[in-house]
Amino acid sequence: MAARDYGQYGGVSSALELVGERWALLIIRDLLVGPRRYGELAGGLARIPSNILAARLKELQAGGVIRRVPHSRVIVYELTPYGRELEPVILALGAWGFKAMGEPREAQIITPDSMTMDLRTAFQPLVAASLPPTAYAARLGTVELFIRVEGSDLDVVRGGGPADLAFAAGADIRRLISGELTPDRAITTGVVQVLGGRNELLDRFATTFHLAA
Amino acid sequence: MAARDYGQYGGVSSALELVGERWALLIIRDLLVGPRRYGELAGGLARIPSNILAARLKELQAGGVIRRVPHSRVIVYELTPYGRELEPVILALGAWGFKAMGEPREAQIITPDSMTMDLRTAFQPLVAASLPPTAYAARLGTVELFIRVEGSDLDVVRGGGPADLAFAAGADIRRLISGELTPDRAITTGVVQVLGGRNELLDRFATTFHLAA
DNA sequence: CGGGATCCCGTCAGATACTG
DNA sequence: CAGTATCTGACGGGATCCCG
Predict the structure, then answer these.
(1) pLDDT at A98
(2) Which InterPro entries does the record cross-reference, listed alphabetically (chains A, B) (predicted)?
């Protein structure tokens, strides 16, 4: 049960002994969005074997990174305060990995939690601060997200709602966020379909969520 | 040879497919200090099997993270520009892991490169900017480092040199950096031995390198 | 001697089935 | 729904060997 050790005394090796095992940081990524049940984690991490998920949850719990909370009938996993301090790590890792993303491979899926964290990664609070509050309803593949930007605050939740701009796109929304595609070209090429609201608001979206490749 | 995939399309999973395998981030940590030869990496990562080191180097090269550079007779590995962009990730991970460090376990060693990166992690550029240039000669366990702070710049190299303060300590230098121990108590308890220079300069060291637990 | 490649073995991950 | 049990295959660990 004890995580495998690297035989070194240092910050990075200590961190990797706690969260360096396969799947661990993806579990933490999803828990950064909010507390999740076992089945929700398994659903978001489609290809994780259930025994591995169970093992990781125990290890992360033993390491003080997550907590197992019984809520009346159901059991929920959530990050401890110390686990929540991994947010800068996940955001930095996500920003770096974002630049390496190419076209989605066969059988690569988008999940609500991974998309939510990618949006948080690309979020530009300084840009957003000077823009009026805006709500977006985005359908990305099969994932529906309701995105509210207000000042330098960002809130992303699953589902829809009354939005200033509603749009649908696929995995290549990445090309809009990276700046590879202008908002205009994204619409004319069909990468983004505007379902409601003014087209110009996609400009605002693209400047609010931007991560150069 | 292709890295194992997570079946997800997202920034974090993409990153982990490139640098998420065991030992990979420790190799990158050491290469952030400077280009290294195969044997130097093997020396700094004492417990890595040579086949794993060889496999990781190939994978990281294929992923565009490192480069294999023949220098006349010898071969040197170095980070690509894209690989160097992992520095914020390593620093964030190191800062997080630093807080989880307890006493060194049996057979846990300190290496020059891991110590160098830990110092970079703990470095407070804003504090340093308002202090006069200072050079420290530190012997940490068997590791000798020459640390120069000038304005908000930090330079750490192996070996010694003419320093304003020379001191020796063990792994529990961590307790000074975390603030668990004041500089005064660190000296009186013998955690830090001042070998040359004025004792008061250890105050400056402790404020320049600080990471609360 | 530096820079690996090869071999064997143990452990972990992956897939599926099963249970309280 | 929240895991446990079991089996198989792949990867990591350790030692040894090889080649320029």
Answers:
(1) 97
(2) HTH_HxlR, WH-like_DNA-bd_sf, WH_DNA-bd_sf
Say yes or no to pLDDT of A2 above 60: no
Task: Return the sign of the alpha-carbon dihedral for residues B110, B116, B119, B121.
Answer: negative
CA dihedral A176, A178, A179, A182 (to 10 degrees): 0
Residues 44-73 on chain B lying near strand D, CB distance under 7 A: 47-52, 55
**A89 contacts B11? CB cut-off 8 A:** no
Residue A1's pLDDT band, with cuts at 50, 70 and 90, is very low
DSSP state at residue A199: T
Q: Would you state the structure tokens that stand for residue A206, as one six-digit string?
A: 């693209």
Q: How would you classify the pairing of strands B165-169 and B66-71?
A: unpaired
The CA distance from B90 to B108, in Å, is 20
Contacts of B25 in chain A (CB under 8 A): 12, 16, 20
d(CA A190, CA A141): 14
Average pLDDT, chain A: 95
- Which of A6, A25, A171 is closest, CB to CB, to B16? A25
Measured CA distances, B108 to A131, B90, B102 (Å): 52, 20, 12
Is pTM beyond 0.90? Reply is yes
| β-bridge partners, B76 | B37, B69
B192 near B168, Cβ under 8 Å? yes
Sequence-separated (6 or more) residues with CB below 8 Å from residue B45 = A6, A8, B23, B26, B27, B30, B53, B111
Q: Are A190 and A161 in contact (CB under 8 A)?
A: no
What's the pLDDT tens digit per position in A127-153? 999 999 999 999 999 999 999 999 999
B108 CA → C1 C1’, Å: 28
Q: Does B189 touch chain A (CB under 8 A)?
A: no
Q: What is the strand order of the sheet B165-169 is part of?
A: B153-158, B143-150, B134-140, B165-169, B192-197
